[in-house]
Write a structure and sequence with these properties.
The strands form 2 sheets. Strands 1, 2, 6, 7, 8, 9, 15 and 16 form an 8-stranded mixed beta sheet that branches. An 8-stranded mixed beta sheet has the order 3-5-4-11-12-13-10-14. It is globular and about 65 Å long. The chain is built from 13 helices and 16 strands. With 410 residues, it is an alpha/beta fold. It has 3 domains: 180 residues, 3-Layer(bba) Sandwich (FAD/NAD(P)-binding domain); 144 residues, D-Amino Acid Oxidase, Chain A, domain 2, CATH 3.30.9; 66 residues, no CATH class.
Length: 410
């Protein structure tokens, strides 16, 4: 093993794994530092619902072998209604998916150091030149990428991304067997991914059931510590309490049991990113998170951020001067806004509005979706102000005003 690389990547999640995969395929010396042990990876970090769509599968050549179930439909639920649309997708076995990324990168020469907890950057002349891990161990590189998610020790130390952590998203997921996927009064969730907007179950967030085949499903709850959560939360309830409350009151779980060992927890911070790069450094993946208002698509965002980081590093390192200055790596910021999260401000504003709406408004939204063309929903989810405006009702003006007031004050 050498101590000097072209690129060091902290974190072996989808973003870091994809960046390593692309850079190794291009012949660069890449080292990935991962906190978990090789034998256990990924256990503590196996936290994603892992639902994605064909565009992601095709764009990154994700193999069928890591798919638990190919789905045909997406279902949106509110407390009293559901909306069913044909939208093919895939529910991944997240552990297999992450290990596939490791295998792909290693096959092209990337080195993975497991049991390597990154603590801080190694600085020289005011610039990052390497990473310190496991106390006093150090490795060096021309470019360092922080893909460690919410912890982001390198990004914090370098004061990149404006990580003020205002709105934390907290999620928990279990896998169940013995599910009833189509009881009377509910939509059929066979071969479907379902997202539910219901403050009684997930105040300021959403819950989900992703069919994984047979009578099994991934089931979870996520909420953001936002105004919607503060207004609707049950006193003393934890994220575990909400999931238990749901499973005890919903007939789909009447005969269901948790599958042992299939418990996943995670967190992220939903905020507008500021600068995401500086001299010799980029922050990618959950370090600068954004989600689609409805579909989420966290895996796709992470993979795309890893890909544009690799493209940026490739551009800088093939320069005759190997120019890894802040001005050169700022290409990553540009590509992120163009290809990873276009119209991010519009989409995050819509997300804020969505989670402030009442359960009664969620019911009306789903009633409206039955008469609106799919194209309008897709456009709104993609950040189109006009499409969003067309879906508003008079009663939404107060939500629009309060969201705008908080948005601009922050």
């Amino acid at each position: 093993m050498t101590d000097n690389y072209d690129v060091i990547i902290a974190g072996a999640g989808p973003a870091g794994g994809q960046a390593a995969r692309d850079l190794a395929a291009r012949g660069y010396d890449v080292c990935v530092l991962e906190t978990e042990s090789e034998d256990e990876f990924p256990s503590r970090s196996n936290k994603s619902t892992a639902g994605t769509f064909p565009s992601t599968m095709a764009s990154f050549n994700i193999p069928d072998e890591v798919v638990m179930n190919f789905t045909d439909d997406v279902v949106l639920e509110s407390p009293s209604h559901h909306y069913h649309r044909h939208q093919p997708g895939a529910v991944l076995e997240f552990a297999d998916f992450k290990n596939w990324l490791v295998d792909e990168a290693e096959a092209d020469g990337a080195e993975y150091l497991f049991d390597a907890r990154v603590s801080k950057p190694v600085m020289e002349g005011g610039e990052i030149v390497g990473v310190r891990y496991n106390g006093d161990e150090e490795v060096y590189a021309d470019i360092v990428i922080d893909a460690t998610g919410p912890s982001a020790p390198l990004a914090k130390a370098l004061d990149v991304c404006d990580l003020d952590r205002q709105k934390q998203a907290i999620g928990i997921e279990f896998e169940y067997e013995g599910m009833d996927l189509a009881p009377d009064g509910y939509g059929d969730l066979t071969d479907a991914m379902m997202l539910r907007l219901d403050h009684d179950i997930a105040p300021g967030g959403y819950s989900w059931i992703f069919h994984t085949g047979g009578d099994t499903a991934k089931v979870g709850v996520c909420y953001i510590q936002n105004e919607g959560h503060r207004h609707n939360a049950k006193s003393g309830y934890t994220i575990d309490d909400y999931l238990q409350y749901w499973t005890e009151s919903d007939p789909r779980f009447a005969n269901a049991e948790r599958i042992a060992g299939k418990q996943h927890r995670g967190s992220a911070h939903i905020q507008l990113p500021g600068r995401m790069s500086t001299d010799n450094f980029m922050a990618i993946g959950d370090t600068v998170p954004t989600v689609d208002p409805l579909w989420g698509e966290g895996i796709d965002k992470c993979m795309r951020s890893g890909r544009v980081a690799a493209a940026t590093a490739d551009r800088a390192l093939t320069n005759s001067d190997r120019d890894t200055s802040a001005s050169e790596l700022a290409v990553y910021d540009q590509l992120w806004h163009e290809r990873v999260a276009p119209k991010v401000k519009n989409r995050l504003f819509m997300t804020e509005m969505l989670y402030r709406a009442s359960n009664e408004r969620y019911d009306k939204l789903l009633e409206d979706l039955h008469r609106l063309p799919d194209e309008q929903l897709d456009a709104a989810n993609g950040g189109s102000p006009l499409a969003m405006f067309r879906m508003l009702k008079f009663e939404d003006l107060s939500i629009l005003a309060s969201t705008a007031r908080d948005w601009f004050s922050n």
